[in-house]
Amino acid sequence: MITRPLELASRLRPEPRNFDFLFWINAGLIVLFFSLFGSRFVLAPGLGIDFQLPRVPAAYADEAQSTDYITVKRGGLLLVSDRGQISLAQLRGWLAEQMEAKKKARETKRPILLVRTDASVEMSVLAEIMSTAREAGFWVEWAVEPVAVPPGESH
């Protein structure tokens, strides 16, 4: 029975005893390439670094923490932290209560109302909230999230 019909092992050249000059040329070119064209900005995965985001001094110029917040949903639905759901008509009373509490406690010079909403809320509702809050003495900040568009639908 023939187990090795071509007998390729007998036709191979013998292994070299040491590295030939072509190996050393390739190794030198690889080292030269990585030393010249390697980037010091590419980091190995898992390499610990002390990374900090850049800071812009003007970004913190008027920094203030909000004192109260409301969430506005589609159709003028307002959600507040201590009462739950309120209407636009009840917002004026709620803001007046919050302002009285702040004046009694003397906890802040300028109360800030954070309004969280998304793009589905009508601009007329947002304008009414803004004017009501300003009349009550609040500074208004907005936190707006993009509305999710269902697949196949465009803006």
Defining traits:
155 residues; alpha/beta; Nucleotidyltransferase, domain 5; 5-stranded mixed beta sheet; 3 helices; 17% strand; elongated
Calculate Rg over CA atoms: 35 Å
List the secondary-structure elements in sequence, H or E: HEEEHEHE
- Please indicate the percent range of residues in DSSP E strands (runs of 2 or more): 15-25%
Share of residues in helices: 25-40%
Low-confidence parts lasting 5 or more residues at pLDDT below 50?
A: none
**How do the strands of the widest beta sheet line up side by side?**
3-2-1-4-5
CATH architecture of the domain at 63-145: 2-Layer Sandwich
State the end-to-end CA separation. Answer: 76 Å
Shape, principal axes of CA atoms = elongated
Main beta sheet strand tally, sense and closure: 5 strands, mixed
Layout of helices and strands:
Blueprint: H1 21-37, E1 68-73, E2 77-80, E3 84-86, H2 88-105, E4 112-118, H3 123-136, E5 139-145
Parallel strand pairs: 1-4, 4-5
Antiparallel strand pairs: 1-2, 2-3
Structure report:
The chain has 155 residues and is α/β, with parallel strands linked by helices. It has a domain at 63-145: Nucleotidyltransferase, domain 5 (2-Layer Sandwich). It is built from three helices and five strands. It has helices at 21-37, 88-105, 123-136, and strands spanning 68-73, 77-80, 84-86, 112-118, 139-145. It has a five-stranded mixed β-sheet with strand order 3-2-1-4-5, with helices on one face. β4 (112-118), α3 (123-136) and β5 form a beta-alpha-beta unit. α2 runs parallel beside α3 (123-136). The longest helix has 18 residues, at 88-105. The chain is elongated.
